[in-house]
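Listing S7. Sequence submitted for prediction.
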Amino acid sequence: MAVTPTSASVDNCKARKSWSRNFSEAEKAAIYVNYNVYKHILGKKHISGTKNANTRKMQNEAWQKITNEVNAAGRALRTVDEVKGKSQY
């Protein structure tokens, strides 16, 4: 006869993902406005006159600035990855 785990032990094995709050309209507006400010940096694979590593650094700095603006406008602290994901919609 096979031994099956109890429901309590199965629940303990599952990693629960904590969900963040939905983006507010103010946060969405901050992403839209600030993305348009920095899209000349974010939309390029290579910015003329700079090396590829410098382009990536400039893009990361732009995303951090956008995230700071979103956090100032919103009610939840967002990460750069959350803001990047939301900007694609």
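Caption to Listing S7: primary sequence and predicted structure tokens for the chain studied. The radius of gyration is 20 Å. The chain has a mean pLDDT of 82.
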